[in-house]
Amino acid sequence: MASFSPVTFTLPLLFIFLFSIPQNSEAFSRQISRTRMGIQKREKLSHLRFYFHDSASGPKPTAVPIVRPPSLSSPTGFGFVIIIDNKLTIGPDPRSRIVGRAQGIYSSADMNQLGLMMAFNFVFIEGKFNGSTLSVLGRNAVFSAVRELPVLGGAGVFRFARGYAEARTHEFNVSTKDAVVEYNVYVFHY
Question: Which of 21, 74, 115, 146 has a CA 20 to 30 Å removed from the CA of 5?
Fold first, then answer.
């Protein structure tokens, strides 16, 4: 009876594995046609205007701290992290029609002035953009009159999107830390 050796079994499997790995970049990447991805239309530029309601107070806050600043002596709260699920409305009144949500995080990322690092998605729930999202990542210098944040991409109608969002504080309550921010978003998409 023939004896079984782990080396006799393992060595052929190792050779099969090594020689089955693709040796060219085609397995990793390839060019495809625009029509195959559903990009048959010309790119267009859309302007969206809505209000972002950042609510840190009340029975159901939509901006919740998840990390406190490591030092309470920091004038900017450097290091705090907030998670958000803020409503987006057609007007500055919180009772105006909801067109979406802003979902993500922001944190204090500047030790000298209040500068937030913001990473969130605008998730639209109404109209022709229903079910579509835009992804935003950037610095928000809160005390500047107008702040620009890059739009890095999107999904749904906004697949392959790029652009920027302008933020303007409409209202800020110092005691509750609640804010209403007007957003004007300019985005290229197909």
Answer: 21
Q: For residues 119 and 107, is the Cβ–Cβ distance under 8 A?
A: no
* pTM summary value: 0.81
**Location of structure tokens 């406190």:** 68
* Full 3-state SS string of 5-74: CHHHHHHHHHHHHHHHCCCCHHHCCCCCCCHHHCCCCCCEEEEEEEEEEECCCCCCCCEEEEECCCCCCC
Token output for 39: 């990009």
**Helices marked H in the chain — which ranges?**
6-20
Answer whether 161's CB lies under 8 Å from 189's CB: yes
pLDDT along the chain (190 residues), means of 10: 58 58 64 78 94 97 95 90 98 97 97 96 97 98 96 96 98 96 96
- DSSP class of residue 143 equals T
Backbone angles phi, psi at 94, to 5 degrees: -60, -15
CA triple 127-121-43, angle to 5 deg: 60
